[in-house]
Amino acid sequence: MKGTLFCLLLALPCLVLGQHRTDNSLNSEWKFATDPVKVGEKEHWQDTAFSTRYFDKVKVPHCFSTDPRYFFYTGTAWYVKQFAAANPGDNHVFLKFDAVFYKSKVWLNGVLLGTHEGGYTPFEFDVTTLLKSNNTLALQVDNTWDTTTIPGAKTAGPNSSSNQGLLYPWINYGGITRPVHLITRPATYISNTKIIATPDLVKGDASIRIKAFIRNNGAVAATSAVNATIYRNGTKTNIRFKPQSVKVEPGSIVPVELTGTLPASEVTLWSPDAPALYSANITSGKDTIATTFGIRKIEVSGTRLLLNGEPLKMGGCNRPLDYPGYGSMDPQEALEKDLVMIKSGGMELSRISHYPVSEALLDWADKNGMLLILEAGNWQMTTKQMDDTLMRSKFRSQMREMMERDWNHPSVFAYSVGNEFLSNTESGKSWVRDMGSYVKSLDDSRLVTFASMLLGNENLRKPEDEASHYVDFVSANIYWNHLKVLQHIHTLYPNKPVYVSEFGIRTDDVASEKDRINYLKKAMQDFRQCDYLIGASIWTFNDYFSRFPGTNPNGYRPWGLIAPDRTPRGMYTVWQEEFAPATIELLNKKDGRASIRVTARKDFPAYTMKDYRIKYNGHYIPLQTLHPGDSQVLDIDLAGGAADVALVKPGGFVILEKTLN
């Protein structure tokens, strides 16, 4: 009843998550104003009595950098919203921001709730004691950067010469860029859950470990019983957990672990081609929380990446979060358009971004099958910055916020602790060693890496000369001499898999798109000679706005397989063919029929193809399971003397198309 009352009084969309837990949207209309000389706080813009009559009206999520009135504004700005709410009774109410770029300061009814730094991760406040029937929420946001922000400018050093050291190569898209929520929970509630689902590949069953973090925001100690139920496709499974009873003191968080075994008959493994998901309902006293997860095993064996015991080599991409009119917002219609193109282009194992992505992206990747490396923070930090205690603390904070939000997503298989820093220095080595250990202390079920720009340096003679010595697999940004650099990496790290985290060429570095296509084909020839290569991500999927030196006068860095408006360039089509896991070959044609051979690649990319289909002239032929190197010959009808033939992945994604005349 209390949850329903909240929905009515707020007059906003409300998701009822349980008898004592609701999630109310605080999106839609807010008041907005820039504050270029930073007088807002001094003039008490945060106070309930302050008039926002001359503020503009905007719709949250909102990216002020793309609003024509404030295009690329850098500085302080304010958001104000009035909303009604009811007395929550014994429940507590929390104000949650999914992301605000970059620094935030938040007031409710004139009282400072707190601050947050970090532009891509969530934060929240308990607002129970401040909530009234009518409320004023004020947020000050600052998207400026300096040498202490992440990302930010560089301190003086060998990799920060000239004006390049003052900038980072994407736009500081400011604003409340992701949704805002008003959440009700019991005073003692589940603040987070962590699910580790590990299959036994011999027995076929799976170990399910659930860690529930029970938090008490009440005034007295509370005792709570914790239990969980697992579902597959809405049907309750037969796993049983032993309920745990826990006492939580006021202001404390106590982790509680539930363990059980899911019988083999109910285990369906998650993979990119078969993204099977389970759901868990976890209860603690009056609180219930639901989350999804997948059962899969990721491991490194020598130079191979194994998924559920099978070797995997896949293509991928880097997707700078930049969409015309949206900036760093990721509305569902734009996000899904990009992800369908990425999946259809064979870009399924990706170091997807330099910073935490949206939950909606990860949800899509879980449901449709992608493997992602998540990265936070360190973009070309200098040695001074990597040694700085404050910078290390900020990085750990942003990394932790990302990991604690994302660690139940089966699509996440690795974490990266940075990109293109001086990893051959003692500072760089210490960073990777220490941050890698920190990541593993939070989540040891996934792999750790970072993107190195230095591994083509022939002065690196032994593994300890560079920080890749400390990672589970080597990630390297390689733009030229791909084979030579890869062979050098393999000489340095003969027992580690190698991942090309960036390669590519700009549209304006060549005479025509044909030259980019030739670059791609030559790179793929090199990659296919390296049996230790597990993946390669194009830089980039899309063009993106930037202030970095070398950006074109139109504001874009034109690395993309697609143009800013999402029109595919010629390279995208060739990319589909090169990154498809199989080839289609015409053997012969006779009497209106054709014989074709479908061959699973055995070099790169390479993985077992199960439940794929060939589509031709509106008809489908199921393919048998093809292991790398396997072939299948099909006889098809050439209606009208020709046939459009396509290779279709599970899920209906068309990844390779050919016309047989």
From TrEMBL:
Signal peptide interval: 1-18
Domain Glycosyl hydrolases family 2 sugar binding: 43-186
InterPro entries on file: Beta-gal/glucu_dom_sf, Galactose-bd-like_sf, GH, GH2_Domain-Containing, Glyco_hydro_2, Glyco_hydro_2_cat, Glyco_hydro_2_N, Ig-like_fold
SUPFAM superfamilies: (Trans)glycosidases (SSF51445), beta-Galactosidase/glucuronidase domain (SSF49303), Galactose-binding domain-like (SSF49785)
GO terms classed as biological process: carbohydrate metabolic process
Keywords for the protein's UniProt record, in alphabetical order: Glycosidase, Hydrolase, Signal
Domain named Glycoside hydrolase family 2 immunoglobulin-like beta-sandwich: residues: 189-296
Domain Glycoside hydrolase family 2 catalytic positions: 298-542
Pfam families: Glyco_hydro_2, Glyco_hydro_2_C, Glyco_hydro_2_N
MF (Gene Ontology): hydrolase activity, hydrolyzing O-glycosyl compounds
PANTHER family, alphabetized: BETA-GALACTOSIDASE, BETA-MANNOSIDASE
Membership in a protein family: Belongs to the glycosyl hydrolase 2 family.
Protein name in UniProt: Beta-glucuronidase
Organism: Chitinophaga arvensicola
Biological classification of the source: Bacteria, Pseudomonadati, Bacteroidota, Chitinophagia, Chitinophagales
